[in-house]
Amino acid sequence: MSLSDNNNLSSQPLLTIVIPSYNEAKRLPRTIPQVAHFVDSQDEEIEVIIVNNNSRDETRQIADEFAAKFPYVRVIDEPRQGKGAAVRTGLLAGRGAYLFIADADLSMPIAEVVKFLPPQADAYDVAIGSREAPGAVRYDEPEYRHIMGRVFNFIVRLLAVPGFHDTQAGFKAFRREAARDIAQRQTIDGWAFDVEVLFIALRHNYKVIEIPIEWHYRPNSRINPLKDSFDMFVEVWNIRRKGMRGVYDD
Predict the structure, then answer these.
(1) CA atoms within 13 A of residue 33's CA, in its CB half-sphere
(2) Shortest CA distance to 212 belongs to which of 118, 102, 112?
(3) DSSP H/E element including 37
(4) What is the rounded distance in angstroms from the CA atom of residue 179 to the CA atom of residue 163?
(5) Residue 6's pLDDT band (boundaries 50, 70, 90)?
(6) CA-CA distance, 109 to 18, in Å (whole number)?
(7) CB–CB of 110/46 below 8 Å?
């Protein structure tokens, strides 16, 4: 793992925004300026970490250009393939009192982050950006994707994480101490890391809440509807088995 030289923040920021990025050369030039505009509009100190996840395109070069322009941006390389691996690296590297995971496509507008921070949200350990909680709004999502998501969520609630109706939106916030503890116990590098993270949080009695968000469907998703759905089902079952074996315990 290597860090960019641009890391001159000294005091602890209120917030770290972690953006896992695999082959995001087309999206980052559109999304990072939006993130920068949000950061510049806030009174509190915020850092941004772009985790380059073994990209094969110009993701690292583009991220470095933004890091050179904005002093609060850091770039980290995570060679282990998988969004879960990139998220784990970002959570362990973040310095903020709160750490926020954001998808590079910004399907949730970045301004929604304020919903996850005091005074709008407080006294939680993990906050899930939910497309199903009362007040949430979805835009332009194909019907088949919505149905697939509901079926997968039923499996998640049945086998691993009861009580939460949307575990897979890529926008989640963590209190720093909880983030470090959970990330160190995390074992999954792939898509099902979301479920594992929440399973670990609940197993260790962390307070998990859902926050309704505005969410926009973005085309060109990297999820293969059939293959990845099957793989995630297997991973959810494995999470349950690991829990029964005490893998996530002290």
Answers:
(1) 3
(2) 112
(3) helix 28-40
(4) 21
(5) very low
(6) 15
(7) no
